[in-house]
């Protein structure tokens, strides 16, 4: 591939347009090395690999923005001079912005790690900490961000009417966008955050707190109270509802200590159990769709209680919600691991395809791979992403699909005084038998979109094509009408400026035995799944590593650079420039950063 991360990648707007064009074209089959078969010995056989990615289908993109002339768009594209692939969001922002960056300071320390829903903090600037060591900024030696300059408040008229954004403006500001192919958030006490802290990969990334959890009820979007402070400050709940909600959430945190409360409902759904808890329909809706975030139809009572407890336990570690989002997009995470790998001698080769696996007939083990130059590369173990395996290898595999939509809009789905909001909304199924849809809305301070726009991701397990699955929800939440005279019910909805729909293969959860003729030392890792978090990917990575190296620690803390001893060959390779990892990202520019900006992942304070 020409970029890091596979289906976990992030693109600038121009890069995404190139990706869309590539996926809409039929792949060309070519054999760049005609004589590579001569390199196979008599006691060897080959397992062919795919040279084209077939994990993306039904790609459809639409422009709803103000009409631009072809000359305007062409001129904007020429001015932007955007690379197609291979540039990280951080690098693109560094090249694009010439303003001075503002030092980051004054992070809020983590609150006591409570399982109490009352432990949430106000605001969304944080330090991510573990339970040993002193707190510091691993990237810069300072605490996380605070911008020392504030902008004047917008006028009443400008607050009411969003600025008109044209397609040529989006193209011209294309470097401001870092658009993820897969949309996820990080649970503040999830496996990925723990791994980032333990391995010290966190030094290469910054995060922004998700500021709001939303719900869609009775045709409108509203904010869900999560913490105790939110609950008792809420104007949408009566005093009785507040007490009922707090009582139930407290029970969920310690439900295992009270089995008599739920054991009669273990064989029934979580929705049925909620109906017995004296909760109003509104509270049941909040808990089911916005806190537990589980299916109403088939989630068991125990699974629902566990999901609710996980949500509550993640509250208060870094902010008012359980979630974090990496600045510059989810695609920064694989690049961060590439940077750490490069520090210790790993090499990541872009634009370097592999033709086949070379297997020894006697032992059945894979000996090497042949690249598109006909070069043989030998190794003891081979880790292959599922999309590289050929149809003959995967003939017995049954794949699921993920429906994805990415929208660029002109305003938030729930307007508040602050425009810099990161929101998550779980839309209930439109029809019976349909999946719920996860909506994540990102503001410009996440470094994923240009100023005065929002980037909206929609995700659900597929039942049809992505547009058929997701467009009904898009029409409920957004205005697709490009006419000047809007209908009354469309006036307050955000306007979609541009959209793309596509289906992505979900290869998670596939048993190794489903693959045909797979050598014992070849390990298959899946692409992204449809879950909100990253726990599945972390568990799979650890499982594969332990199978290869059962006596080694998975992603151990790196040694102190001062204690590292290099031999002459390592020093010579460093001098020759064999370090092709992405560059470290810069701090946000004053225009894009805000006082609600990034959090750094660092070792935690030890209490006492």
How far from one another are the termini? 50 Å
Q: Specify the structural class.
A: alpha+beta
Largest sheet: 8 strands, mixed
Strand order of the largest sheet: 3-19-15-18-17-16-8-9
- CATH homologous superfamily classification of the domain at 1-24 and 42-67 and 165-221 and 323-551: Guanine Nucleotide Dissociation Inhibitor, domain 2
Kindly state the number of beta strands: 21
Q: How many alpha or pi helices?
A: 15
Tell me, briefly, the overall form.
Answer: globular
Unreliable spans are: 78-88, 94-127, 129-159, 484-489, 576-581, 589-596
**What is the highest CATH level, the class of the domain at 1-24 and 42-67 and 165-221 and 323-551?**
Alpha Beta
Rg from alpha-carbon coordinates? 25 Å
The CATH level-2 architecture of the domain at 1-24 and 42-67 and 165-221 and 323-551 is identified as 2-Layer Sandwich
Q: Average pLDDT, to the nearest integer?
A: 80
The CATH topology of the domain at 1-24 and 42-67 and 165-221 and 323-551 corresponds to Guanine Nucleotide Dissociation Inhibitor, domain 2
Beta-strand content? 15-25%
The portion of residues assigned to helices is 10-25%
Please give a structural write-up.
Among the domains are: 1-24 and 42-67 and 165-221 and 323-551, Guanine Nucleotide Dissociation Inhibitor, domain 2 (2-Layer Sandwich); 227-314, Guanine Nucleotide Dissociation Inhibitor, domain 1 (Orthogonal Bundle), CATH 1.10.405.10. 24% of the residues lie in helices and 17% in strands. It is α+β, with helices and mostly antiparallel strands. Mean pLDDT is 80; it is low at 78-88, 94-127, 129-159, 484-489, 576-581 and 589-596. It has helices at 13-24, 70-80, 89-96, 156-160, 167-172, 191-199, 228-233, 239-253, 270-274, 281-291, 301-314, 332-343, 466-477, 535-548, 568-575, and strands spanning 10-11, 44-48, 56-63, 127-128, 179-180, 186-187, 206-209, 212-217, 220-223, 323-326, 354-360, 366-371, 376-378, 382-385, 400-409, 423-427, 437-442, 454-461, 496-506, 522-525, 599-601. The strands form 5 sheets. Strands 3-19-15-18-17-16-8-9 form an 8-stranded mixed beta sheet, sandwiched between helices. Strands 4-21-7-10-6 form a 5-stranded mixed beta sheet, covered by helices on one side. The protein has 15 helices and 21 strands. The radius of gyration is 25 Å and the shape is globular. 41% of the residues are buried. One of its GO terms (biological process) is intracellular protein transport. Residues 121-143 have a biased composition (Polar residues). GO terms for molecular function: GDP-dissociation inhibitor activity; GTPase activator activity; transferase activity. Residues 402-530 form the RAE1/2 domain. Residues 81-163, 551-608 are annotated as: Disordered.
């Amino acid at each position: 591939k020409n970029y890091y991360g596979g289906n976990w990648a992030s693109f600038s707007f121009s890069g995404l347009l190139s990706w869309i064009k590539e996926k809409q074209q039929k792949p060309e089959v070519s054999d760049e090395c005609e004589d590579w078969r001569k390199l196979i010995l008599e006691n060897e056989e080959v397992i062919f690999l795919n040279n084209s990615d077939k994990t993306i289908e039904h790609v459809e993109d639409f422009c709803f923005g103000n009409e631009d002339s072809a000359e305007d768009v062409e001129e904007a594209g020429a001015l932007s001079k955007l690379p197609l692939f291979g540039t990280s969001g951080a690098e693109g922002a560094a090249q694009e912005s010439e303003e001075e960056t503002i030092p980051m300071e004054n992070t809020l320390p983590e609150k006591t790690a409570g399982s109490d829903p009352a432990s949430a903090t106000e605001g969304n600037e944080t330090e991510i900490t573990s339970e040993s060591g002193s707190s510091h900024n691993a990237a810069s030696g300072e605490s996380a961000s605070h911008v020392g300059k504030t902008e004047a408040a917008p006028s009443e008229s400008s607050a009411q009417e969003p600025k008109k954004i044209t397609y040529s403006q989006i193209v011209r500001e294309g470097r401001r966008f870092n658009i993820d192919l897969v949309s996820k958030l990080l649970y503040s006490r999830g496996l990925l955050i723990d791994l980032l802290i333990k391995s010290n990969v966190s030094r290469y990334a910054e995060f922004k707190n998700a500021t709001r959890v939303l719900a869609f009820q009775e045709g409108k979007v509203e904010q869900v109270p999560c913490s105790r402070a939110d609950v008792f400050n809420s104007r949408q709940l009566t005093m009785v509802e507040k007490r009922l909600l707090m009582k139930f959430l407290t029970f969920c945190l310690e439900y295992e200590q009270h089995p008599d409360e739920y054991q009669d409902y273990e064989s029934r759904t979580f929705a049925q159990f909620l109906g017995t808890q004296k909760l109003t329909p509104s509270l049941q809706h909040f808990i089911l769709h916005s806190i537990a975030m589980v299916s109403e139809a088939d989630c068991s009572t125990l699974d629902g209680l566990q999901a609710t407890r996980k949500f509550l336990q993640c509250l208060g570690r870094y902010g008012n919600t359980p979630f974090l989002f990496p600045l510059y997009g989810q695609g920064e995470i694989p690049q961060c691991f590439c940077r750490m790998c490069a520090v210790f001698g790993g090499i990541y080769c872009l634009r370097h395809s592999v033709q086949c696996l070379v297997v020894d007939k006697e032992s059945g083990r894979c000996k090497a791979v042949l690249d598109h130059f006909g070069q043989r590369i030998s190794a003891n173990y081979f880790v292959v992403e599922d999309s590289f395996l050929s149809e003959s290898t995967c003939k017995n595999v049954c794949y699921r699909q993920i429906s994805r939509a990415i929208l660029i809009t002109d305003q938030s789905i729930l307007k508040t005084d602050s425009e810099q909001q990161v929101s998550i909304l779980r839309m209930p199924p439109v029809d019976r038998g349909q999946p719920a849809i996860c909506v994540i809305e990102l503001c410009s301070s996440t470094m994923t979109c240009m100023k005065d726009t929002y980037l909206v991701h929609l995700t659900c397990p597929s039942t049809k094509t992505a547009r058929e699955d997701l467009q009904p929800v898009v029409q409920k939440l957004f205005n697709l009408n490009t006419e000047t005279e809007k209908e009354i019910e469309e006036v307050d909805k955000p306007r979609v400026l541009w959209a793309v729909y596509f289906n992505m293969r979900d290869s998670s959860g596939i048993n190794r035995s489903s693959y045909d003729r797979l050598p014992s030392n070849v390990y298959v890792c899946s692409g992204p799944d449809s879950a909100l978090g990253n726990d599945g990917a972390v568990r799979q990575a650890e499982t594969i590593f332990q199978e290869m190296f059962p006596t080694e620690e998975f992603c151990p803390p790196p040694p102190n650079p001062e204690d590292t001893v290099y031999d002459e060959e390592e020093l010579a390779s460093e001098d020759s420039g064999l370090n092709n990892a992405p560059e470290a990202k810069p701090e946000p520019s004053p225009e894009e950063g805000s006082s609600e900006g990034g959090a750094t992942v660092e070792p935690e304070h030890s209490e006492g």
